[in-house]
Amino acid sequence: MSWDSVLGGFSPLTFSGLESQRFGLSVARIAVGIGWPQQFSQLTGVADSIRTQLESCDNDVVIMRYPSETPELPSISVPSGWQILPAGSLMYWEADLASYEEAQVPNDMSSECLLDPVVDRSEAYGQQALEIIADSFSGYTNHYSANPLFDRKLVAKGYLEWAANTLSLSSGYACVLSQNGHMIGVATVVASKDDDCVDEIELAGLSRKAQGQGRYRYLLDAVAHSARDRGKRKIVISTQSHNIRVQRAWARAGLLPYLSVETVHCVRSGLGTKPLQ
Predict the structure, then answer these.
(1) What is the mean pLDDT of residues 97-104?
(2) Could you read off the pLDDT of 16-39 as tens digits, one per residue?
(3) Quick check: 201 and 185 in contact, CB under 8 A?
(4) Mean pLDDT (whole number) for 50-78
(5) What are phi and psi of 99, to 5 degrees?
(6) Which listed residue, of 20, 73, 168, 185, carries a Cα 20 to 30 Å from 130's Cα?
(7) pLDDT over threshold 50, residue 277
(8) How far is CA 106 from CA 178, 191, 250, in A?
(9) pLDDT band at 276 (very low <50, low <70, confident <90, very high)
(10) Cα separation values, 83 from 61, 119, 134, Å
(11) What residues pair up with 236 in beta bridges, in sequence order?
(12) What is the 3-state secondary structure (H, E, C) of 64-108?
């Protein structure tokens, strides 16, 4: 759920072509941001809109996200004929760049900001950045894991598509962390549309060989440095609530929790299930 959607109101059902192609099912998304009270006087208004969308759609799976402070939303909005699969929470953290303090980068490490590594560097360089993302998030448990209709082996492909799409945007860029000339970490970042003073880190990870040695902080600092130089006032980042390890790293770097978002998968009844792979 992008930062713009988090701050926004009710976003109508949108077909997700990439997810549909990846999993072989018709997948759509519905998002409810914290700005929903500006559109509706009561939560029942949001629920009625969601119900209308679900009753008229022909999708197999609808991924719905909504603020954690509205836990009753699925039960009052999802009509009969759909199964609700709870799929976890997203925790959003933020850093005020006016007070953010960067750690000193060791002499054998370097970080750089790339507006588009595929264009500004080489195809091989860009591919290497995507491979770091794939390696970092291999086996990561996310909301797809809650749905037995989704093949787990295809989840990593989604991260590659997400990263490549971000880098294709005019508002997207990457920060790369290298050690002794070898790329070990990548963060993909996009500037918020609704708030030009915010940069959102969408994906940030180190290769598995480089993890657990305190290097993640330098990748986070690289994004903060880049965002500050570009006139931003804060950075935001999110992860599944169970990912305590990275949230502890964010806390050590000075980030603070901002809000949480729930995810449910609405699955059309009668589809059946298949074993998780």
Answers:
(1) 91
(2) 999 999 999 999 999 999 999 999
(3) no
(4) 97
(5) -115, 0
(6) 20
(7) no
(8) 11, 28, 19
(9) very low
(10) 9, 44, 31
(11) 94, 200
(12) EEEECCCCCHHHHHCCCCEEEEEEEEEEEEEEECCCCCCCCCCCC
Residue 116 one-letter amino acid: D
Q: Tell me, what amino acid is at 38?
A: Q
Give the pair of three-digit tokens for residue 222.
Answer: 């690289």
Residues 224, 222: Cα–Cα separation, whole Å: 5
Give the pLDDT confidence of 165-220 residue by residue, as tens digits: 887 777 888 888 988 888 899 999 988 776 668 899 999 999 999 998 889 999 99
Residue with the two structure tokens 């588009």: 116
Q: pLDDT tier at 122 (50, 70, 90 boundaries)? A: low
- Residue-wise DSSP of the chain: --HHHHHS-EEEEEE-HHHHHHHTS-EEEEEE-TTGGGT-SSHHHHHHHHHHHHHH---SEEEEEEETT-TTHHHHHPPTTEEEEEEEEEEEEEEETTT--PPPPPTTEEEEEES-HHHHS-HHHHHHHHHHHHHHHTT---GGGG-TTS-GGGHHHHHHHHHHHHHHSTTEEEEEEEETTEEEEEEEEEE-SS-TTEEEEEEEEE-GGGTTSS-HHHHHHHHHHHHHHTT-SEEEEEEETT-HHHHHHHHHHT-EEEEEEEEEEEEETT-------
Q: Which residues pair with 89 in a beta bridge?
A: 262
pLDDT value of residue 168: 78
Query: What is the identity of the amino acid at 33?
Result: G
CA torsion through residues 149, 140, 119, 237, sign: positive
